[in-house]
Specification:
Blueprint: E1 18-26, H1 27-40, E2 44-45, H2 60-83, H3 98-164, H4 171-177, E3 188-195, H5 199-209, E4 215-220, E5 225-226, E6 233-234, E7 236-243, H6 246-258, E8 262-264, H7 270-306, H8 309-326, E9 330-331, E10 337-345, H9 349-362, E11 370-374, H10 391-400, H11 411-426, H12 429-444, H13 446-450, H14 456-463, H15 465-482, E12 498-500, E13 513-515, H16 526-529, H17 535-567, H18 571-602, H19 608-617, H20 632-651, H21 653-671, H22 677-686, H23 688-692, H24 697-721, H25 724-748, H26 753-791
Antiparallel strand pairs: 1-10, 1-11, 2-10, 3-7, 3-8, 4-7, 5-6, 9-10, 12-13
Helix pairs in contact: 1-8, 1-9, 2-3, 2-7, 2-8, 3-7, 5-6, 10-11, 11-15, 11-25, 11-26, 12-15, 17-18, 17-24, 17-25, 18-20, 18-24, 21-24, 25-26
């Protein structure tokens, strides 16, 4: 394949010549052959097994293996992402054996799964002990405060009873007060943590289920804790439930389980509490150390994987695509060779044959692959060789429709006409410089940005960076022609040709202006911008220029239809489509363009609208002061006659000539002597559709009538459509002028630094947001419409299909 160049070549004018090729490949060298063809990227395989499902194909097992390896690689990437590690990009090495890689990936996955399982268990235990520690702390505080309060209350009661004791006190009361402690009832308790959002419901259910025979005490934790079950941070409360009886205990345990409350054992003995706290702290320290060591080991394993994972992923993608392609091949009955069919450019024949020979040599095959060109009537795919500069322009054309095989490609002309028409609407060399600086940033950093994942809008802008660059350059040019820099005119190419003869011309009017110098050498004279009475001249200039550009581009489209017809040897289209269309368009709008140029050259005051309208209404009337040249009246009558003749010329001859050709073909097929079977077979293949479908003259005639009406009305509407160039140019200029006059100059007039800064900020924001973004998008879309509708509909069918070769270069853009 030719080396990539930076500028368009003649390869873009018509698609590459293609050929249908059959490859007969020995089984032992099939894998290596497909590998070389994938590296070359110039062969589009046809599926020779369309009736088989993916599971019935020969290499379905190998594809499943590749999919399993791809799953393991995705698992490794997920683990690296969780660990905050990045993969390293190393040069691809395809010498790794697929079987060895499969075993290695399996071992690494098993090791990581085991490490993750152990880490989860350890983390679960650590979180449980952490909760246990909180329960010991908070519950211990509750018991300590309760015990202190109980002791103080008991002492107070004893002192009170001692003071009131007398001989009159009943002996029975003393007996009641001195009951055997072993016969007293003892309360049980359950402690743990409950999610704070469930605490109220938890308390309510406990109360209802036990009929109020429990005592619940809760302590709110200041910070969330990691739940051992879910592994997420949750706000929780420490609770202690006091109860009496085994039945109440069972109910409380079930309620705790229902509310996800984790229960932990606790002792009311302070000494045992201290022992339990010491043991829990030791366990936490031990678990923390073990978890940290496990994380370090896992990070080391993931780092080792990260140094090769990109290489493994690329290799698995390659192998998977190779087996997908092998499944498209047909297995010979002897099962000793595979048969492939596909399209390739003619220029790549030598490269493909060299690849086949190299694959045979590398696989130590005794039999070489066979390269055989097939004859076919099938329409080949369309392939244009593009580069980073021309690809974006080609994408603009392909978005409308892919060119038919060997059809004239509008992409070549779009490289110039698209940015130029954009610039006609966007003409301001200040705004053009801003666009150029923005796109130069993308161009200078294209190597770095091309390897990064960008956002949708940024990626779209980056992909069209060279289109934007051309738009910016042409905008600078048209801005110099319009003499507009953020709507402000400058005397860049010399002084204005006009000067004030008195003070009356100083206030934005033209009264008193006289020409004192030669005409301004390039573009619009700066004085014209400052005079509102001269504004109609600028409007007229832009409007007439829009008509000239539109007629020129439509003529280019008709001329390209001639080259298409000549290339495909379609004489009917040359004589009964190209010539009458060219005559009709130029008899009306070509003549209008001529009148515009003549009026500019002669400085005449003739009314062109009057001339064109009365050319139809009163063609024989005297032109009077609207006459621009001698013989104009006779010339107009001639053009009008040609325009009227060209309409039936487009409509009638072609259907009758097609009918005549069909009858001659049918008669020749019926009575011709069959010389040999091969000639007869070729004849039948070529005219198969004509034999099975009868010629419907009415359908052909109606079809031609529609085309004729469409062209006649389209010539008028398309010419009017090009006036959008004038309208958007005027809108862009006026918006820019409003922002300059009503924002920047108005803020400047206040003589206040704060107001000036605010004015500058507003001016920059309005210019960037409205003129550099919205107006750019608007002009882009209008230029797109002019190319798709007004230009391409004259010659471009766009009903082809793209050449999509099997290539490893496209694997990185595909999602797994």
């Amino acid at each position: 394949m030719r080396g990539e160049t930076c500028w368009p070549t003649m390869d873009l004018l018509r698609s590459e010549e293609m050929q249908l090729v059959q490859l007969i490949i020995p089984t032992e060298s099939a894998h290596r052959t497909i590998y070389y063809l994938g590296d070359l990227g110039l062969f589009q395989f046809k599926d020779l097994n369309p009736g088989k499902s993916p599971f019935q194909r020969t290499f379905a097992t190998q594809i499943k293996r590749c999919m399993e390896m791809a799953r393991k690689i995705r698992f490794f990437k997920e683990q690296m992402e969780k660990a905050g590690l990045l993969s390293s990009r190393f040069p691809n090495n395809d010498n790794v054996n697929l079987d060895e890689l499969e075993v290695k990936l399996g071992e690494l996955e098993a090791e990581l799964v085991e490490m993750n399982a152990n880490s989860e268990k350890l983390q679960h235990s650590y979180n449980e002990f952490l909760e246990y520690k909180l329960v010991l702390l908070k519950a211990g505080e509750l018991f300590h405060s309760a015990l202190s309060g109980a002791i103080a209350l008991q002492r107070e009661n004893e002192a009170h009873q001692l003071g009131e004791k007398s001989i009159d006190s009943p002996l029975l009361k003393e007996q009641e007060m001195t009951v055997d402690p072993s016969k007293q009832g003892r309360l049980g308790f359950i402690s743990g943590l409950v999610p704070r959002e469930k605490a109220i419901a938890f308390e309510r259910i406990l109360f209802r289920s036990t009929r109020g025979n429990v005592f619940l005490k809760q302590v709110v934790l200041e910070y969330p804790v990691v739940d051992p079950t879910s592994g997420e941070k949750v706000n929780k409360n420490v609770f202690i439930v006091f109860f009496s009886g085994e039945r109440a205990k069972n109910k409380i345990v079930k309620i705790c389980e229902a509310f996800g409350a984790n229960r932990y054992t606790f002792s009311d003995d302070p000494r045992k509490q201290q022992e339990m706290m010491t043991e829990v702290n030791a366990k936490l320290s031990e678990l923390k150390t073990t978890i940290d060591v496990g994380h370090v080991h896992r990070d080391n394993v993931l780092s080792a994987i990260g140094s090769q994972i990109e290489q493994w992923q690329h290799m698995v993608k390659k192998q998977k695509s190779i087996y997908h392609t092998l499944n498209m091949l047909s297995l010979d009955v002897t099962k000793k060779c595979l048969v492939a069919e596909g399209w390739c450019p003619v220029f790549s024949t030598k490269q493909i044959q060299d690849g086949l020979q190299q694959a045979t040599y590398d696989s130590n095959s005794e039999i070489g692959s066979i390269f055989h060109v097939l004859q076919t009537k099938e329409l080949p795919p369309t392939y244009f060789r593009t580069n980073k500069f021309t690809s974006a322009f080609q994408e603009i054309v392909d978005a409308y429709g892919v060119a038919k095989y060997r059809e004239a490609n509008p992409g070549v002309y779009t490289i110039i006409t698209f940015p130029f028409l954009f610039a006609v609407m966007f003409g301001d060399w200040g705004h053009g410089i801003c666009l150029l600086l923005a796109t130069l940033y993308f161009i200078m950093r294209e190597k770095k940005l091309s390897s990064q994942k960008l956002g949708d809008i940024t990626e779209m802008t980056f992909g069209g960076r060279y289109v934007i660059m051309m738009m910016a350059l042409f905008s600078i040019y048209t801005g110099l022609v319009y003499n507009e820099f953020f709507s402000v005119p400058f005397e860049l190419f010399g002084r204005s040709a006009y000067s004030c003869s008195d003070a009356s011309c100083r206030d934005a009017t033209t009264s008193g202006l006289v020409k004192v110098r030669d005409t301004y050498p390039f573009g619009v004279d700066p004085v014209w911008h400052g005079s509102r009475s001269e504004l109609p001249f600028l409007n007229s200039l832009k409007m007439k220029m829009s008509i000239l550009l539109g007629v020129a581009q439509m003529n280019l489209g008709i001329i390209l239809s001639y080259f298409n017809a000549k290339f495909f040897k379609n004489n009917l289209n040359i004589w009964h489509q190209f010539i009458p269309q060219l005559i009709f368009l130029n008899s009306l709008f070509g003549y209008l363009s001529l009148l515009i140029v003549v009026k500019w050259c002669t400085g005449s005051k003739a009314d062109l609208y009057h001339i064109l309208i009365y050319m139809f209404l009163s063609p024989t009337d005297d032109l009077g002061e609207n006459q621009l040249f001698i013989g104009q009246k006779f010339f107009q009558l001639l053009l009008l006659s040609l325009a009227l003749i060209s309409v039936p010329w487009m409509l009638f001859p072609k259907p009758f000539l097609l009918k005549k050709q069909h009858e001659e073909r049918h008669q020749g097929q019926t009575y011709a002597l069959v010389i040999n079977a091969e000639v007869s077979l070729d004849f039948e293949m070529e005219h198969d559709t004509h034999e099975h479908e009868e010629f419907e003259f009415s359908e052909i005639f109606v079809h031609q009538l529609i085309h004729t009406i469409e062209f006649v009305l389209g010539a008028v509407s398309n010419t009017a459509s090009y006036l959008r160039l004038w309208a958007l140019s005027l809108a862009h200029s006026e918006l820019s002028s409003v922002f300059y006059d009503k924002v920047l100059l108005l803020a400047w007039g206040y003589n206040n630094i704060v107001v000036l800064i605010i004015g500058i900020v507003v001016f920059v924001a309005a210019t960037a947001g409205v003129l550099l973004v919205m107006e750019t998008l608007s002009a882009f879309l209008h230029a797109l419409r002019l190319h798709w509708v007004e230009f391409q509909n004259k010659f471009y069918e766009g009903d082809g299909y793209k050449f999509q070769p099997f290539s490893f270069a496209s694997l990185d853009d595909e999602d797994e």
